[in-house]
Sequence to fold (475 residues):
Amino acid sequence: QQHLVWFRHDLRLRDNPALSAACLDNEAEVLALWCITPDQWQHHNVSPRQLNYQYDALRVLQQDLRELGIPLLIIESKDYHSLEQDFIRLCAEHKIDKVFYNHQYELNERQRDQRIEALCDQNKIICQGFNDATIFPPGTVLTGQGKMYHVFTPFARAVLKKLVAEEIECSPLPHKRKYPSSVCGSTLRDFSSPEGQYDTTRFPLGHDAALHRLRDFSTHQVEHYADKRDLPADDDTSLLSAALAIGLLSPKQCVKRIVHDYPNVFEQPGGPATWLNELIWRDFYRHLLVSEPQLCRYKPFQTWTDHIQWQNNQQQFTAWCEGNTGFPIVDAGMRQLNKTGWMHNRLRMVCASFLVKDLLIDWRWGERYFSQQLIDGDLAANNGGWQWAASTGTDAAPYFRIFNPTRQGERFDPQGKFIRQWLPELSAVPEKSIHEPWLWADKLKKKLDYARPIVEHRQAREATLRAFEDARKYR
Ligand code: FAD
Fold:
């Protein structure tokens, strides 16, 4: 018997239900598979940084699998369509009788799996899918009417109730097995690129390092999380999003760790409970992708918002992308993104709100740009975050609540520490003027090598309110 484990965004050995299930039968030979699909990646706007991160993770995984007695095979196909025949050919070549994989919930991936399952069925190959990407599988946290929640708070309450009632089980690490004598693993083509370079000290390399970071964060940082998570200069969040996005870690491992270290997390508010709540947001957006597949097609959750007349000014978009809007907190956030592939959550909200509500640019432009840059790019969380900020989503910020970017800077970076880190051209500006440096420079007739604000916030706010109110007539 030859079993195949198809790795996707689950590049780890621990708590990998597909891998554990494939290894249950000690007699079976187990092979692993990973698919390189460059055109599909491009179509999905996967960032070069995330590709490099995946490549590095795969190299670690390949070695770990070898030690476990499992060769890693690679298929390289242009996209998911051409993958189908290549996949079936590989199964025939290795006489595969069972395929194991963890589900991906994005629409193209689900359609790919359905087509491949049908082909496997024709070829008498059994496929088994598992859930590893969320705490509870989509479709198992529902309202009393059996529907997906459209509001986060009751969803979170339902998840917490389930967590109290059912102990979370992680899948066991498989035992070492005999390396198949007739199969040698594929050579992993280097699909990393120079523009995908990322800081390996910030993003854990391999699944053991990700687990280590989780333990460390839980022991030393999470207790202060509720107080510090909104302050970008403190840089005190877990930085685990990239690892979660490609599955170096599972959300269940995160929950288990927090519950182990803080057994009263369900009763006691504070850092651990707040962090758990963020993990539940992650689940919420994934569950939504399954119940509302149109979200994967760049459709807003609130359909009336498709009637908004966006201004879509290309020059302003470029200024936003480059961090040259003249609003220091926005520019600092965008430069952090461009330079590192990661941005602090508060700033993602501020920068997204600025693009949509100050520049009246279609949120989908921003969603795409973020995805092209982020090392933690994830369709569910990115789409959810953008639709929240744009007021087009479910349980989103109301359209009339518009962040004032200057006030956001004053509130969350009061001394301008973060701004100075990313905008060295403002180093001479005193603390009290850092959020409106031009007022200071003009008053003192100083020169600044920094953009002037590309919009006037109050006017921009009025224009946005009008655009949303006009569109609301279509509700
Ligand atoms: P922590 O604060 O330590 O949180 C722990 C984990 O919870 C994160 O790693 C992440 O997996 C999850 N999480 C936290 N906040 C959210 C949230 N609001 N929504 C969903 N999951 C959350 N997150 C991504 O992983 N990928 C994205 O592409 C992405 N795009 C975003 C776009 C916008 C416009 C916004 C507002 C948010 C986006 N987020 C995204 C959510 C959030 O900003 C990041 O998950 C977080 O900043 C990652 O840093 P961390 O790992 O230190 O998070």
